[in-house]
Amino acid sequence: MADIQLSVDQRTVTGKKVKALRRQGIIPAHLYGHGTESLALQTEKQTITTLLRKAGRNAIIDLQINGEGEPRPVVLRGVQRDPVTDELMHIDFFQISLTEMLRADVPLVLIGNAPAVAAYSGVLLQTLNHLAVQALPTDVPEQIEVDVSDLDTLDAALFVRDLTIPSNVEVLADPDQLVAKVEPPRIAAEIEAEEAAAKEEAVVEAAAKEAAEAEAAPAKEEAEESE
Q1: Number of other CB atoms surrounding residue 219 within 10 Å
Q2: Residues 56, 123 within the same domain
Q3: Which helix (H) or strand (E) holds 134?
Q4: Domain range spanning residue 117?
Q5: Are strands 4-10 and 61-65 parallel, antiparallel or unpaired?
Q6: Angle CA(103)–CA(106)–CA(108) in degrees, nearest 5?
Q7: Number of domains in the chain
Q8: Model-level pTM?
Q9: Running DSSP on this structure, what letter comes out for residue 67?
Q10: What average pLDDT values come out for the chain (227 residues) when binned by 10 residues?
Q11: Is the N or C terminus of the chain more exposed, i.e. has fewer CB atoms within 10 Å?
């Protein structure tokens, strides 16, 4: 059993009518994935908000659909929010098999201090924020730590091939992809522009991935998510 449980109900309200559900504090959701037909679901806003605070993107959730006997193992695959108010609008769950490999994007977290930053006024840049991996669902790490304490010269860099990865996790990314680098000191505005560009690229890549994963969703759900 997973550490996180969530109870949901099957949903009969679809399309534009889901606005009424949201006004009642109910969030529409959608389930698709391994061994299941597409299902329209709903859950209490307060309940799902609490879950989102403690469940990472790759956390396994026991999804109990009221009326069914056994919970279903799922992971989060989409969280839609209002672009203006940031209010929660819609949730996508992806049903998994605990015995089959799962592709996932794992956050990369920098740890330690790069000596070149203090010694040469260098600027530490992280160019890769998530790593594409494949593993059994229970083996997917919550995050991968990247130790930068060996970056002791300007232009010193770490690549995907330098990361410490558990033996039961397969890396899908290019081994030569840059993860972090110490840049020579430059004008602050130039550094900020590069960081902003990197973040924008990461957002675009994440959006493209979620769009591809959501292709299995029925057309009516796509219309609903645009509300």
Answers
A1: 7
A2: no
A3: strand 130-135
A4: 102-185
A5: parallel
A6: 155
A7: 2
A8: 0.75
A9: T
A10: 85 89 94 94 94 87 94 94 93 96 96 95 94 96 96 96 97 97 75 75 69 54 47
A11: N
